Amino acid sequence: MKHHTPDEFQDIRDAVRALCAEFPDEYHRKVDEQRAYPEAFVNALTQAGWMAALIPEEYGGSGLSMAAASVIMEEINRSGGNSGACHGQMYVMNAIVRSGSAAQKDFYLPKIAAGELRVQSMGVTEPTTGSDTTKLKTTAVRKDGRWVINGQKVWISRIQHSDIMILLARTTPLAEVQKKTDGLSCFLVDLKTAVGNGLTVQPILNMVNHETNELFFDNLEIPEENLLGVEGKGFRTILDGLNAERTLIAAECIGDGYWFIDRATKYANERVVFGRPIGQNQGVQFPIADAFIELEAANLMRWKACEKIDARENAGAEANMAKYLAAKASWEAANVCLQTHGGFGFACEYDIERKFRETRLYQVAPISTNMIFSYVAEHVLGLPKSY
Ligand SMILES: Cc1cc2nc3c(=O)[nH]c(=O)nc-3n(C[C@H](O)[C@H](O)[C@H](O)COP(=O)(O)OP(=O)(O)OC[C@H]3O[C@@H](n4cnc5c(N)ncnc54)[C@H](O)[C@@H]3O)c2cc1C
């Protein structure tokens, strides 16, 4: 397995940093205030090829490693941006790379790589079943050479800024399968034709400027060939992409964490109260040092997860642990940064309250912390399955 050194990806860091520098704090602040989508930023990242990092070269992507791709996401967040607007574009298509037919790969991947098609929505979560994914109730039934979809999803992100969604639905009733993970299938849903023709989208106003929605399927018909992967094995198709998703989000949290530490350190050095920089007080500097140490430790697990994925080894434990540690470390860094800034931390123009809200999400989505504990308890430590 290849081990990475911190300075290994300096060329990627420099290039992504240069692009991000064209979108300063004011840009991201305004997008947040207006609850808008960072269209210009995402377009610039796409046109520069960064969003196609994980698409194989034969399909027009750059075929980079997970480690290299994670540096891109880290740098976006470290620059003050929010990868949440576009990270789906980097990993959702993984399901097509891994499970798509030759025809699907030939059709979709070059268009995604060229930025002609956005595939950045994944529809899994449902309002009545939540984390208990295999109980999901949305169904897909074959009828006259088409699939007919009925049901409901919640918290499905970037629908309004995506052309295609990958949908998980039940194709064989739970009562008729031996394993509860069987009987689920994945589908490619063309959102432009679906909305208004069986698919209704209801945006959810939420704590962050994260475009996310409730979806209602009422006899939505999609072509038979839009089944992605093997019928009944869709849970596996989705799972294959999840370790990549968790590892990339861990890297985003690491980027956030360094952003908070940089801001806290700078302010603690500059702000003078009681005749000395506040950072001279151990009560101010120790929590910053503590948060930095936690972040550095979390970063080691992020690299370990990348290395395992790139070595094509099972990275389930490392990807989950990296996401847990990084989300926790970035949140602690956020809290310390806010505290260090005193009242000014609450002023929007400092961007701390925005990043504070943004980084908090990652202890809940795309998988909540308790589910990670549960995974590690059962699959790493051999404790009894708890649900
Ligand atoms: C902004 C945002 C964007 C999202 N984007 C997407 C998306 O694009 N696609 C998608 O499919 N989903 C998306 N999600 C959904 C997200 O993955 C879920 O919210 C998350 O997995 C938790 O599910 P839930 O909200 O139903 O919580 P629940 O499953 O209801 O759980 C609530 C709480 O109880 C805990 N809990 C539940 N059961 C147990 C147990 N057995 N043991 C211990 N603790 C337990 C959970 O850890 C959690 O803390 C998004 C969510 C948000 C907030």
Automatic annotation (TrEMBL):
The enzyme class is: oxidoreductase
Q: What Gene3D superfamilies would the database entry show?
A: Acyl-CoA dehydrogenase/oxidase, N-terminal domain, Butyryl-CoA Dehydrogenase, subunit A, domain 2, Butyryl-CoA Dehydrogenase, subunit A, domain 3
Q: Which GO terms describe its molecular function?
A: oxidoreductase activity
- Domain Acyl-CoA dehydrogenase/oxidase N-terminal spans what residues? 7-116
Q: Which domain of life is it from?
A: Bacteria
Which residues span the membrane? none
Q: What is its EC number?
A: 1.-.-.-
* Sequence ranges assigned to domain Acyl-CoA dehydrogenase/oxidase C-terminal in this UniProt record: 232-365
> Domain Acyl-CoA oxidase/dehydrogenase middle: where?
121-219
UniProt keywords, alphabetically: FAD, Flavoprotein, Oxidoreductase
Q: Which InterPro entries match?
A: Acyl-CoA_DH_CS, Acyl-CoA_Oxase/DH_mid-dom, Acyl-CoA_Oxase/DH_mid-dom_sf, AcylCo_DH-like_C, AcylCo_DH/oxidase_C, AcylCoA_DH/ox_N, AcylCoA_DH/ox_N_sf, AcylCoA_DH/oxidase_NM_dom_sf
Q: Does the keyword Ligase apply?
A: no
Q: Quick check: keyword Flavoprotein in the entry?
A: yes
Name the coenzymes or cofactors required.
Answer: FAD
Please give one Pfam family short name.
Answer: Acyl-CoA_dh_M
Family, similarity comment: Belongs to the acyl-CoA dehydrogenase family.
Protein name from the UniProt record: Acyl-CoA dehydrogenase family protein
This chain's source organism reads Azohydromonas lata
